[in-house]
Amino acid sequence: RIPDHVRGRGGDGRDHRVRDAAVVRPGLAVSKKAAKKPGDEKGSGKRVIASNRKARHNYSVLEVFECGVVLTGTEVKSLRDGAASLADAFATVDDGEIWLRNLHIAEYHHGTWTNHAPRRNRKLLLHRRQIDLLVGKIRDGNLTLVPLSMYFLDGKVKVELALARGKQAHDKRQDIAKRDAAREVVRELGRRAKGM
């Protein structure tokens, strides 16, 4: 026979351990919820995967759109590892749909025969009004669609797509000259503030 004090029974024959545990558990659950911060969720915030740095050098950006992308499971897993390149990527309009071409997403290293092709065409998700607006502007002028960056926003992959016009060589030189002049002005103001 096991003594009453080891089994958790009081002198009245009832089991007190169950009652005590029921009182303690809700307190633990409340303290865990209180310790959780609003930004701690797995998919919250914006995390940049890849950016096209040469796009702003080669094109003058007129308008920017945020669009979703149709991806497979191994592509998303590979993007979580940061294995993507927008270097040669561009977007085209085919049959009223916008497609992202030449985007390189490396094969997922744990993938099997279900792995994706690294440079396959990927459909971009935009509202019909936005697609119609882009189609009209591309047909009217000498404009193109260029991806600027790719990022996770609240767990979903988004692409920042720019409606842009290609720069001529003299435009690029002017931009470089303006940037150098602005940098020199900041340097000179810094020297004057230091008393040199």
Q: What characteristics describe this protein?
A:
two-stranded antiparallel ribbon; alpha+beta; 7-stranded antiparallel β-sheet; single chain; 9 strands; 196 residues
Could you walk me through the main structural features you see in this protein, from its secondary elements to its overall organization?
It contains 6 helices and 9 strands, in the order ααβαβαβββββαββα. It has 196 residues and is an alpha+beta fold. A 7-stranded antiparallel sheet has the order 1-8-9-2-7-5-4. Strand 8 and strand 9 (156-166) form a beta hairpin. The N and C termini lie far apart (92 Å). Mean pLDDT is 78; it is low at 20-41.
Mean pLDDT across all amino acids: 78
Portion of residues in beta strands equals 25-35%
Number of strands: 9
Summarize the biggest pleated sheet: 7 strands, antiparallel
Q: Helices and strands, in N-to-C order? A: HHEHEHEEEEEHEEH
Estimate the helix proportion, in percent.
25-40%
Shape: globular
Count of individual helical segments: 6
